[in-house]
User: Which sequence fits this backbone?
């Protein structure tokens, strides 16, 4: 794998595009472990974002029935189409945040780090069985943080509302070319059953977590504009906030179910 990757880099005189977050994984054991974690068989349709030079794609193609690989860099699309003869891989050229996703049931990717947050939120809008994803270590730690943790954030809450997330492996920066400035980690995501998912008002969540260290009423006061309320509108409803569930707690202590209680209360009094 490593030899294949550097052979292609030399053949095409490639330089990684930092603007696209290109850091190619060069350790075959990590790739194989991630393929194993996905539990692939010939019935699976896999979505890969950022196939790069096709090393992971090649491993996925040997196990899955179909692989859709979304690549934004036209240079890499041409290389993938020239160097590999996959019968079950379809390369989709485009921005993974904008292109229409095909039907899939699993995701396995070494993600471009600069789109980690928006692509994760996009994944969570789809029904899939399992995702095995590589992120920056700090981002991964926020994904799996629990209420009250120092890393607990809007990301933590929104992931927890929709899925089970587990950080299963840390990866040193030396496992990539070019070497990134930070360590990475593998996260396994499995969506919760429909009856366990918590559907939250994203504007409310954003308003709260803009001030994650504040109490709930204080956070809403500071971010009332994010709820579509003018300062005058907020003054009119401020008196009802003291009766709001969890009004004495700080935002970073809230679980998704707690935010849902706040949301339902605000809807009942006409704030949302």
Assistant:
């Amino acid at each position: 794998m490593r030899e294949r990757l550097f052979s292609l880099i030399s053949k095409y005189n490639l330089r990684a595009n930092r603007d696209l977050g290109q850091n190619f994984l060069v350790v075959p054991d990590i790739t194989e472990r991630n393929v194993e974690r996905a539990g692939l068989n010939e019935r699976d349709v896999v979505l890969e974002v950022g196939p790069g030079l096709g090393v992971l794609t090649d491993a996925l193609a040997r196990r899955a029935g179909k692989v859709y690989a979304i690549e934004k860099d036209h240079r890499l699309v041409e290389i993938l189409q020239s160097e590999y003869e996959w019968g079950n891989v379809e390369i989709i050229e485009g921005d993974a945040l904008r292109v229409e996703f095909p039907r899939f049931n699993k995701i396995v990717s070494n993600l471009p780090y600069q789109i980690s947050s928006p692509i994760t939120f996009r994944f969570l809008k789809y029904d899939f069985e399992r995702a095995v994803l590589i992120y920056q270590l700090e981002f991964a730690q926020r994904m799996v943080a629990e209420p009250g943790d120092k890393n607990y954030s809007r990301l933590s809450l929104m992931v927890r509302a929709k899925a089970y997330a587990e950080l299963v492996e840390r990866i040193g920066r030396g496992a990539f070319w070019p070497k990134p400035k930070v360590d990475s980690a593998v996260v396994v995501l499995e969506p919760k059953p429909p009856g366990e998912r918590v559907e939250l008002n994203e504007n409310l969540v954003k308003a709260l977590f803009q001030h994650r260290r504040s109490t709930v009423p204080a956070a809403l006061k500071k971010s009332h504009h994010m709820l579509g309320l003018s300062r005058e509108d907020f003054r009119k409803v401020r008196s009802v906030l003291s009766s709001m569930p969890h009004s004495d707690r700080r935002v970073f202590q809230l679980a998704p179910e707690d935010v849902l209680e706040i949301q339902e209360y605000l809807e009942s009094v006409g704030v949302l």
About this structure: Residues 29 and 259 are 41 Å apart (CA to CA). The first helix runs from residue 2 to 11. The chain has eleven helices and nine strands. The mean pLDDT is 93.
